[in-house]
Amino acid sequence: MSRLFSATVSDDLEEVRNLIEDGHNINETNNTGLTSLIVASDLGNLPMVNLLLENGADVNISNNDGITSLLAACEEEHFEIVKVLLDAVSDENERIQFINKAKNDGITPLIAASNLGNLHIVNLLLQKGADINISDNDGITPLLTACLTDHVEIVKVLLDAVSGVNENERIQFVNEANDFGITPLITASYLGNLPMVNLLLENDANVNISVEQWGTPLLTACLEGYLEIVKVLLNAGADVNEIDNEGLSPLFAAGSNQHLEMVQILLEKGAIPNGSTLERACISGNIGIVKALIEHGDDVNRGNKTPLFNASEQGHYEIVKFLLGLPDIQVNKSDDHGATPLGMASFQGYLPIVNLLLKMKDIQVNTQQEIPYPLFYACQNGHSEIVKSLLKMKGIRFNQLVMGQYTPLWFACLGGYLEIVRSLLDMNGILINPMVNGETPLKISIGEASVEIVRLLIGYYTDYKVVNHYYKYASEWCEFYLNDLRDLCRDPDVNNRQKRTDIFLILQNKLAELRPEPQAPVLLQGLRSTSVTVNEALEQEETKETKETKEPVPFTWHSTGLSEDQAEEIPLAMATVQEQSSIDQWHEAPIHVVHTIPTFGGKRKTRSKGKKHRKHKKRKKYKTRKVRKKVKTHKTR
Fold it and tell me: Do residues 316 and 348 touch, judged by C-beta distance below 8 A?
């Protein structure tokens, strides 16, 4: 760095004067191309600039980025220095060339001043011959720059500067777009600058100009939600139905923003509903827009996903209620996958909407085979109240297979939804053992440790072999959990182990009802009652052994009450009641629940629970015992 340059950077005016008198090169540049004049102009040091100009500093030299002393002064808004630099060029042609010289990115002094909104510098540059049509490397003119930066006064000055030129040139100037297709009017509409929009329209800005990426000014204003600008553009003759290259219309844009008043104005000006706006309104839940569109002729049954379908899926009760009141509504129209409005409401769990739809006379509660239907959706997602409402409907198919294998009961058991299982089991003719990949509802419930569901389902089984099969399967689960009792920290879910034990005991008791079974291992005899846990049974067994041996048994795991010997006995005991079998190869006969009540003469009679009935039951039981006693005596003999 030269001494002269350093003195200029330091604002040392006397040092600069001395160095100039000593003959230092006044136009010397540093490694970035900066001269002392450019630095002084950028710093706003007017005395320094005057000194350098008086001693022959060249105003046309630019740095490596193309920045001249004039451009540096404009970017820093040093008006007096701009004026001095312009006066330093006496030749008019040279001055015009100097004033329009741009830096490497194409920005001229006028563009820089317009971007900053400096009205004084803009006026000065225009007076000295600045070209308002020059654009930067991105096609941005001084007018577009002023619009982008919300400088209305600059826009007015620039428009006044072309008022005297040819009309075609003026219109072209007002509507000049950059390389991205953005025009001054689109910019003003996007920014919501109403005074600027009015000013551009007064100067013949094209209200219907459309660019590929932005559409029209009206579409832009609708997207941004500027109601007043929309009104001004419509009054100026904007095409209300003009769409962009993606098919987006002003009406759809206003509806997407849920701007009811804007939608009403567009409809009054002739906007044509095409279904997409109504679809979006039903999804967003704006009932005002829905009513306005339908009043202006929009089709309520348009498309696969109808307005009713979308409103039901999103849970908009008021919209569903309004749509169901229309005379030509199609309540059963499905989408491409066969789903209906009732199915979507059942899937999402919107009970009030489901009840509304079920009140319709022509509502269909069933669908074609293989397609998920409302009852299936409700069971799959655990919506018990919806299941109850659907099961009350006449003709409901509660055994229908979906995808060739799944039933509502199967999925209810998979989810562990006890209330739904109860509701389904109350249906006359329900199939309780459909098999999917070798798994029935009972097996699923055992695997999911759903104790109460297992208790419900096992009550409908009467075949000892089938129950024994599930008993073995449950014992496998029980053994799996009991094997880890030695190291409880690896399996802290004590509650799950208790559930497995309870299921094991339920099945064991069911076997005892169907056929007397051999004596179970000593360790498992304490599990006969579901009120006794595994730990309690083992403690009872341990206490018995302690009394017999009269020796204390050490407890290694105080949290379980099990000794080391007892923990080792558990897998052995479980193995004695378990056989190797594959549930996937097991096939059982279908079991349907039939709720029958005897009738006499066509009238329904309820079973008597009175004294006579109890006597009959007791007499029958006594007779059975007597027969058994005779058979036993005969065998002994």
Answer: no
Residue 213: other Cβ atoms inside 10 A: 10
Max CA separation in the chain (angstroms): 148
Q: If phi over 0 gives left and psi between -120 and 50 gives alpha, with beta otherwise, what is residue 144?
A: alpha
- Exposure string over 187-210, b if 16+ CB within 10 A, otherwise e: bbbbbbbbebbbbbbebebbbebb
List, for residues 346-405, the tens digit of each pLDDT value. 999 999 999 999 999 999 998 876 678 899 999 999 999 999 999 999 989 998 888 778
The mean pLDDT value of the chain amounts to: 81
Cα distance between residue 528 and residue 543, in whole Å: 18
Higher pLDDT, 474 or 565: 474
Give me the residue label for tokens 């307005």.
307
**What is the signed CA dihedral for 426, 396, 368, 334, rounded to 10 degrees?**
-120
Which residues are CB-neighbours of 593 under 8 A, at least 6 positions away?
425, 427, 428, 429, 430, 432, 460
> What is the C-alpha to C-alpha distance for residues 381 and 614, in angstroms, rounded to an integer?
44
Question: Is pLDDT of 522 > 70?
Answer: no
pLDDT surpassing 50 at residue 519: no
Say yes or no to pLDDT of 35 above 60: yes
**Rounded Cα gap, residues 623 and 127, in angstroms:** 126
Cβ contact 185:209 at 8 Å: yes
Domains of the chain by residue range: 398-596
Q: Is 60 exceeded by the pLDDT of residue 72?
A: yes
Of 203 and 2, the one with more pLDDT: 203
The larger pLDDT score, comparing residue 202 to residue 504, is at: 202
Phi and psi (nearest 5°) for 356? -65, -45
Phi, psi of 68 (to 5 degrees): -95, 175
Give me 303's structure tokens: 């498309």
Query: Please, are residues 180 and 215 in contact by the beta-carbon 8 Å criterion?
Result: no
3 state SS of 430: strand
What string of DSSP letters covers 480-517? HHHGGGGGGGG---HHHHHHHHHHHHHHHHHHHHHS--
Helix (H, G, I), strand (E, B) or coil at 599: strand
Strands (E), 372-424: none
d(CA 50, CA 260): 63
User: Quick one: pLDDT at residue 134?
Assistant: 92
